[in-house]
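Lesson 9: reading folded outputs for more than one chain in a single document. The general rule is that every protein is listed as its sequence immediately followed by its structure tokens, and records are never interleaved. Here is the first one.
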Amino acid sequence: MLVTVAYAMGAPAGGAGAQGAPPAWFNMLPLVAVFVIFYFLLIRPQQKKAKEHKAMLDRLKKGDKVLTSGGIYGTIHSLTQEKAVLIISENVKIEVNRGFISDVVKAGEGESEKS
């Protein structure tokens, strides 16, 4: 019984190019639409944010007040290509990877530069 139902649901006897069948590329449209949606909602904003973060890291200079991704506030004492030495208290300096500086803080306000 199951086999006869399968034959009944099969392609019409007219062959592969039956009338009314959509073209093969038409089946790819939902996949393309999903990719476009992912690009504009996820990929593009993430690339933009990474570009802004890199520009912020390139603008860092001695004396800037910064916030690390670990939540530590400090003032930049010295910079190298990969590391930053922060003063977090009197006579207390720490070295952090430059990429872990998440924001530059305006002097005296305690608010980020983005605000």
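And here is the second record, again sequence then tokens.
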Amino acid sequence: MDAQAARLDPTNPYLVSPKVVPPLDPAFRPSVPARRALVAAIEGSGAAVPVSVALEMPGRSVCVRELSVFADGHPDAAMSHGFAERAIKSMLWSRGGGRIWVDGPKSLVGYLRRHYAETTAGLFDSRTVGEAVFGAPLEIVAAARASFPTVEARPSPLGGHLDGCRIGFDLGASDRKAAAVIDGEVVFSEEILWDPSRHADPQWHFDQIMDSLRRAAAHLPRVDAIGGSSAGIYLDSEVRVASLFRSVPPPLFETRVRGIFRELRHAWNDIPFVVVNDGEVTALAGAMIAGVGGLLGVAMGSSEAAGYVTSEGGLTPWLNELAFTPIDFRSDAPLDEWSGDRGCGVQYLSQQAVSRLLPAAGIYFDPVSPLPERLVMVQQLMADDDPRARLIYETVGTYLGYALLEYRDWYDFEHLLLLGRVTTGPGGDVINARARQVLAAEDPAFADTVTFHAVSERDKRHGQAVAAASLPSREA
């Protein structure tokens, strides 16, 4: 049985039915209850083998996880290897890293090496997180636990710097935003429509971003620092993966796009200039508005975006790309066409989820209509008290509750910020209530400690601008 087949075996006895069933998706088999069932079986089998796994982000941090699998010869050994891979995938996309250290059976090491070299989903993870982000395919290292690297993650000093005259910007798929900020107060902001994904010339991108910066700078007596956000993966303000530049040929991406923000910084006389993932800035904005730390931000829009602020109020060097973390382990879970994997968050906590649930809800839609139009239709039906729309939101809320249980394994958070078009309107209230119902049923202690937050559109716009502008220290 190959790696993919072992994980997706439809006879898997550990795929337990959730305590709260999504009304439009009764076959949903969430990750955390499944892992609990497997762990209980392994511990009671007399054939448990402890496994230590470390995910190394070169030169930055190490995430260590203790797992267990069935011993070789047990009939469910391969199945337990599949569960281990699912846990490692969550590590990979929440934390990031280029090297996976494994202290465990040789059979598990071989399983993981085949997965990342031979399966569609494994190759995507290796090429994206390994090659695109860290410069080399994922490496599986078999080693004793005592020899694992021990670099500790340190909260970034990014964010919360409000002194002076600053520019904050955000580069979205359909518009670019820029704001002028003086000592934490927004004195100018604007949004300009653009369509970056179809432009192949990096100079066009440079000029467009520069135009927004100059327009904001015109409202400041001077510019002390610039901070920005954009969808994608950035390390030290360097572009590693970003859909905004998808039309740029690879050679030009390497020579012009990867360092485009360094080029912009140089054009601004090398003042402090920092760019991070937009989910990070959204979470930072929410934490600053609410005055809290230990906050996870989840945005349900065209995809799923996320960001995390530590209890000390800092950002981390982690990826936080939760769209690719698995939350559903069933064999026929929805397929993500980009990664080739099943059961990942993007298909459950986004406009894609709403569209996918329309047939099950009995709602007709034009198959060529874009996702935002389908969402607007559901929102209108919800405003008209259509029970079919409510079922969609109850289903998405159930997904969210079980996703939060998964995320709690990787993040220490007591505050949750929910954003994105899927959560707007009365349907957002249904999503929140259903997620709370899941937490109360599956983990009452967690349900009692987590606080749900929301921000107004005005606060979001201004908060995002201030948070982005606050990223760099003037001493950076």
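What the second record shows: Residues 1-8 have pLDDT under 50 and may be disordered.
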